[in-house]
Amino acid sequence: MNSMLARVVANFFGCLLGALLSVFILTRDVMIGIAVALVSAVLFALFLREVVWYRRVRLILDNKLHSVRCMLHKEGGDGLPGGRTDRVEIVISVFGILIGRTAYRFNQRGVKLRGVRIGRETMKIRFDNKKKKQQSIALMHGFAGRKEAQAFAEAIAYETGVIPEFIDWEGE
Q1: What is the DSSP string of the chain?
Q2: Distance between CA 112 and CA 80 in Å, rounded?
Q3: Angle, CA of 123, 171 and 66, to the nearest 5°
Q4: Which of 24, 153, 154, 160 has the most CB atoms around it within 10 Å of its CB?
Q5: Contacts of 86 (CB under 8 A, 6+ apart)
């Protein structure tokens, strides 16, 4: 979360510096001042985009139930091998899921939580995405034991009404 906020602040100061530079240069050379002003406008647009994104995901970040750092593999075009693997943080909240920079906010714009399956080592979360297609995320959850997994399941069930299913927990 700190890196996200740092990026927003850095964009703000970049815009501010560009605006001050353009005012200074406009008094010296008009063409260079106009070029710097255009760059400042682009930086300001990027800053606004970051602020809007941060506001959207803040609800997920402030109410997170669980977070996991993992490797996410994206396949090459047309499902061909040879894609790329990125290290991302997955934040799970009753309000949605944040996967790297992609946010799925539940009960907004057609995104609905459909099911949660919790195993000894993995968890699978199913939801409808914005295009009404079912999407699922399987990840290594990192819960220390059944009690921690049970507390997570109770929070999900209480807040969303979706009752998580436990699999492969016999004998514990």
Answers
A1: -HHHHHHHHHHHHHHHHHHHHHHHHHHH-HHHHHHHHHHHHHHHHHHHHHHHHHHHHHHHHHTEEEEEEEEEEE--GGG-S--EEEEEEEEEETTEEEETTEEEETTBTTBEEEEEEE-SSEEEEEEE-TTS-EEEEEEE---SSHHHHHHHHHHHHHHHS---EE-S-TT-
A2: 30
A3: 25
A4: 153
A5: 71, 72, 74, 100
Residue with the two structure tokens 């255009």: 38
pLDDT digits 0-9 by tens, 8-59 = 677 677 767 766 766 666 666 667 767 777 777 787 788 788 888 888 788 8
CATH architecture of 65-166: Roll (2.30)
Beta bridge partners of 96: 93, 105
Domain boundaries of the chain, sorted by first residue = 2-60, 65-166
Compute the distance between CA of residue 139 and CA of residue 162 in angstroms, rounded to an integer. 19
**Cβ count near 88 (within 10 Å):** 16
End-to-end alpha carbon distance in the chain: 35
